[in-house]
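Design a sequence for this backbone.
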């Protein structure tokens, strides 16, 4: 269970926000945090959502069901879309959740007049860039598996709905959001839970975003990513992986330069089989 140690950012109030994927790892983190910024937090998932918080509406909705997804977006001010597969999986699992699901979500936004989506994309959209390179949000995608490929599709879907229907999205290429960084790669990719909240709130409230891609990382000293093109989001991370560096470097003193997970930004995902074998 995430222990919130930050005060909510003041002066932000929505009537109703929708959080999809609320039963997932980051969904659980954001559920209690986002509830502080709205009169009603509508939460959805395909998994059991547990006990309701006082200002919550809970709905079990498979996003591959277009009609249910359309109803899910009725009367919401904005969506934080975490729903779907969040790690490497066989295509049969990725297709309904992350491809059909994302199209249904954007169609539902268009039908219901929802104008802002915060889309949980992933660093696995660009996982095959080397760790030795610093990239910004203009590089060509280099997905490291079916999961990363589906997130690249989601980002393209966001771009289409901005260009044709004026629905704004901030696509968050989330690095590694855990209570603490777990290995040397995460010294660069770590996103603390408090910074995740800051990133999502900034993405919901920035005045004009069009479709913006931003990397989800804390204020780490060593980085793979450059967020200067996304300054207009106003995301100001306050945490850093630096306090964990000495412990993680002592645990993993030698980096195997022949190990793909040490070479590429996507880490172990670049060799994870997408076929479930
Ligand atoms: C992700 O996209 C995953 O959802 C998460 O479980 C982490 O493994 C993360 O990427 C990462 O790259 O560390």
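Sequence:
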């Amino acid at each position: 269970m995430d222990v919130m140690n930050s005060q909510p950012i003041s002066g932000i109030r929505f009537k109703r926000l929708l959080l999809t994927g609320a039963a997932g790892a980051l969904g659980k983190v954001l559920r209690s945090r986002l509830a502080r910024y709205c009169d009603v937090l509508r939460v959805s998932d395909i998994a059991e959502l547990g006990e309701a918080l006082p200002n919550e509406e809970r709905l079990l909705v498979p996003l591959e069901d277009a009609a249910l997804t359309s109803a899910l977006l009725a009367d919401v001010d904005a969506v934080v879309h975490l729903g779907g597969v969040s790690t490497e999986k066989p295509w049969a699992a990725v297709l309904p959740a992350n491809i059909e699901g994302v199209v249904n979500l954007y169609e539902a936004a268009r039908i219901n007049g929802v104008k802002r989506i915060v889309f949980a994309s992933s660093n696995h959209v660009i996982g095959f860039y080397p760790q030795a390179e610093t990239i910004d949000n203009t590089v060509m995608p280099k997905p490291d598996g079916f999961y990363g490929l589906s997130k690249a599709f989601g980002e393209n879907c966001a771009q289409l709905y901005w260009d044709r229907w004026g629905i704004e999205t901030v696509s968050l290429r989330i690095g590694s959001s855990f209570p603490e960084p777990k290995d040397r790669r995460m010294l660069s990719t770590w996103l603390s839970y408090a910074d995740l909240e800051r990133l999502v709130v900034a993405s919901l409230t920035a005045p004009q975003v069009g479709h913006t891609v931003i990397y989800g990382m804390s204020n780490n000293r060593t980085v793979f990513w450059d967020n200067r093109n996304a300054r207009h989001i106003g995301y100001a991370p306050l945490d850093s992986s630096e306090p964990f560096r000495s412990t993680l470097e002592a645990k993993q003193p030698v980096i195997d330069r022949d190990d793909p997970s040490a070479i590429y930004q996507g880490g172990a995902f670049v060799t994870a089989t997408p076929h479930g074998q």
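The first strand starts at residue 14 and ends at 20.
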